[in-house]
Every structure is written in C-alpha cells, then in structure tokens.
Amino acid sequence: MARVLLVEPFHGGSHAAWADGLARHSRHEVVVVSHEAAAWRWRLRGGAVTLADGARAAVADHGPPDVVVASSLFDLAGFLGLSRRFLGDPAVVRYVHESQLLYPANRRTAGTSGPGDEFPLVDWRSMVAADEVWFNSGFHRDALLAALPALLDRAPDQSHAGRLDEVAARCHVVPVGVDLADVPSPDRTDVVPGRGAPAGSAGPLVLWNQRWDHDKNPAAVFRSLGRLADEGVAFRVAVLGENVRVDPREFTEARDRLGDRVVAWGFAERADYVSWLGRSDVVVGAADHEFFGIAVVEAMAAGCVPVLPDRLSYPWLLDGFAPADGTTPVLYPDGGLTDRLRDVLADPGGWRARLAGLDAHVRRFDWRTVVDDYDDRIEALAAAQAAGGPAS
Question: Is the pTM of this model over 0.85?
Fold first, then answer.
C-alpha cells in the first residue's frame, strides 16, 4: 500500500467530490491537504505557499508520501520547490480537473493584467513539473493539447514549445469517479412519464442540476423552458445545484416566469437530491464549457433522458453507446435545444425506450469501478519511483 498526499486547493463542488471520493475509495493511504473553495485567483497565485505549509504538517503527522496527486487551481511547480526539503522524492501527478486556457477569455482575464496568459501558464508549468498528467476526460486532454501550441508560441523568446511532445507523452485519461451507490438504477418496465411525481402533477419532470454560474449557460435552458411554457407544453421543473453567485438574475427571472411549474429550487442535501434524481424524467443542459459532467452522469444513471449539446465532454461521456433504434441522435446540435426538449417532453417514455441501457453505460464512471485504475496507477508510480524513476 502506498502513501498518497492528495493536494486539493479548491475543496468544494466537483473538486471536493473528486478528492473525497478518491480518499474514501482508494486502497492506498490517502492524506488530503486542502483549502476551502474560495478566491480561485488567489489559489492560483498564492496557494502553493500555504498548501506547502499544510503538506509540511501532513508529512510530520503521517510521514513522507510515495506519490503526490495534485489537483488544478494552484502552482504545482512552485509547491514542489517550496516542499523540497521535507517532501522527499515522491512521484508526482498533476490531476487536470480544469484548465484555465480552455475557459472563456473573460474569466481568465478578469482581475488580471496583460493578455490573460498568467493562469494558463501556471497550468502549463504544473504539467511540466509532473511525472504524469491525468485528465478527467478524453475531451479535456485533446482540447488542451490542441490549444497549448498557440499559448507557447506567444513567448517572446526561449519558447517551451519543444517540451510539448514530451509532456503530451505523459498525459493519460483517468476519469472522475462519481458516487452512484445511492443513485437508483431504474426498472424501465415500471417507469412512466412523471415517474414518482405526486398525484395531480402535470407533465414530465425536467431537472437542471448544475452549478449556478454563467459557464453552465442556464439562461439558454430557461429561455427554452419559457418558450415551451408559452406554447402550453406540459412539464414541471426542478432547478437544483449550488449557487456560487451573489445575484443569479436569470434564475430569479426564470422562477417568476415558470411559476407553479417549479417543484424544487436551490441546493438540496444528498438524500433529497438523490430522491429528485429518481423522480426526474429529463436532465437538460446547455453548458458553454464542461470538462467532465458529474451532475449529468448522476442524472443519466438514474434513468433521466439527456437533453445535452453535441459538444464539449458530452460526446466523450456517451462514446460507445448506441440507441436501440440505431438512428436516434442522443445529443442535440447547436441551436437545437428547444426542439429536442419539445420532442422529449412529448414522449419521454418513447425516448427512454430508445435510450435503454444508457443508465448502465454511464455507471462505468462509478467510483467503485474507476478507483481500480487510480490505485493501479498509483501503485505502479510508487514502485517505479522506489526502483529509481517514475513510469509513465
């Protein structure tokens, strides 16, 4: 069994789900050093210093690690420099949970000076410093490796572009684990539209269960729901998830417009959240960026029909799944959200039948399944490092 130091600078939301899930499910000894999920820009600029302080305390309490697994949103290269006197010589993994280079430019440049390359270069230096780089999805790996040459070519001199092939060779896809043990797996012979709905409710239940922020594009979802409500389409809606914004105006406006169609609104504790997963018919999304998609995996595992765009990580999540009729496109094309949602709401049972087996397909991301890949990789890295050098 290896000792793992897991460094998570932004312990909240999907980051916390990943860190806590690995610590809970791994067969190795996992010691977590983390900061709360706040001030993400400061985590990137200053988190290496304070996380190194936390690592020093962890090493004093538990001994030096065999492997360091370090998440995104801090400077891994700086952390390793600050930790060199007490950390020993562990194998080092950068877990690429998110990439600043792939976010919309206004997020990267807000609160910064210059062309907005400061934070993407933190990510790049962290990749260079790691023995292996693990991505949460194949989409994320491919998109970042495709975007990095333009970033590196902007250097005024001494370009790092010659290192790209070497770093790319150390990149692997190690999907996020999703806690699905308590998510009900539907018996499709018993599922009917409005499943689990209270008596007298009107229409299928549409679920929106993502983080309340601009990059998840809730405005597009609410526009489509509003149009369908104006058309008289029968549906109810549950809008769940974490509100990370002070003034989510589109949410307030949508709640007023949708009125008594709203059956749930806001953050739900786990037991209530899982209950809504089991009662919902449709999960809808229109994200502008998605590197993996824990929330939609949970919903599909519970039997929800996905109304998701044919881009970002969603094609990768569904790779290898074939609808029963062999022709139904599972994901909607750009501009097709309202039409697809209208079609699904008109016949959720039919769509569920065509997508039979999708719930089982996405359950391959269950922590109880993917943790073996994590653990085997960690074991191999620890063994290789003990023998004189990391394997990639």
Answer: yes
